[in-house]
Amino acid sequence: MIKYLVLGITFAVAAGVQPGPLQSFLISQGIKHGWRKTLPAAFAPLITDGPIILLVLFILNKAPAWFINVLQFIGGMFLLYLALKSLRSNRKIEFSSLTEKKEKSILLSAVAINFLNPSPYLNWSIILGPILIKGWNESINNGISLLFGFYSIIVLMSIIIIILSSSTRNLHPAIPKVLFFIASIALGGFGIYQLFSSISYFLVIF
Predict the structure, then answer these.
(1) What angle do the packed helices 100-116 and 21-33 form, to 10 degrees?
(2) Helix boundaries (H) for 34-139
(3) What is the pLDDT of residue 147?
(4) In angstroms, how far is CA 115 from the centroid of its own chain?
(5) Nearest Cα residue to 24 out of 93, 73, 87, 70
(6) N or C, which end of the chain has less CB nearby within 10 Å?
(7) 75: closest CA among 52, 54, 92?
């Protein structure tokens, strides 16, 4: 059981320190809206990954490669939309408290980003999926330990990212704007990468 707990924690740390669409989104929203309003977005993987795990373990592994690339294309378009929206709002950004509706909007956007991001699908398909199946077959406790270790660290690291990024709001007003701009550009960069990867696949096969 300890072995699978450590495996889950180790992979979560490796995945958490790598820049990705969700991390960039959390940084930009933490800077713009503060940690209290952005904090629920840290739990987005807990909402999205249940269906993702089921899809990967029972469906996606048997799906053709083009399906993953279509998903990647959709995710890229959505990330570009969010990046452009963030860049436009950066000109007139005000660090004031938001409404409850806006807080829910941040969480829903984080959920959409993670659900359309191919990384969780690929990670569960080729890395965590086989380990989970093996551990679960040995003992249910092994499977639960892997899931607990992975998601506890993923959520914890997301919370840390949000708190650190929101702390820049107390610095010179120009600093949060610059960091928000950089995070928005990074978000767009991931979108372009996903579009390029998916389009390249279809150019090769056609």
Answers:
(1) 170
(2) 35-38, 44-58, 65-90, 100-116, 118-123, 129-138
(3) 93
(4) 8
(5) 87
(6) C
(7) 52
Assessment of whether the complete model's pTM goes beyond 0.90 = no
Instruction: Determine the pLDDT at residue 152.
Output: 94
What is the sign of the dihedral through the CA atoms of 71, 150, 153 and 7?
A: negative
DSSP string, 124-160: IIIIIHHHHHHHHHH-HHHHHHHHHHHHHHHHHHHHH
Q: Up-side HSE of residue 143: CA atoms within 13 Å toward CB?
A: 12
Residues found in the chain: 206
- Provide the 3-class DSSP secondary structure of residue 197: helix
From the list 199, 180, 206, 201, the residue with the least C-alpha distance to 82 is 180
- Mean pLDDT per 10-residue section of the chain, whose length is 206 residues: 86 72 85 86 90 76 75 80 76 49 78 84 75 83 92 91 81 66 76 84 77
Task: Give residue 176's pLDDT.
Answer: 62
Q: Under a CB-based contact definition with an 8 Å cutoff, are residues 135 and 4 in contact?
A: yes
C-beta separation of 203 from 51 below 8 A? no
Tokens of 28: 């930009």
Give CA–CA dist 19/186, Å, rounded: 9
Structure tokens at 100: 């409850």
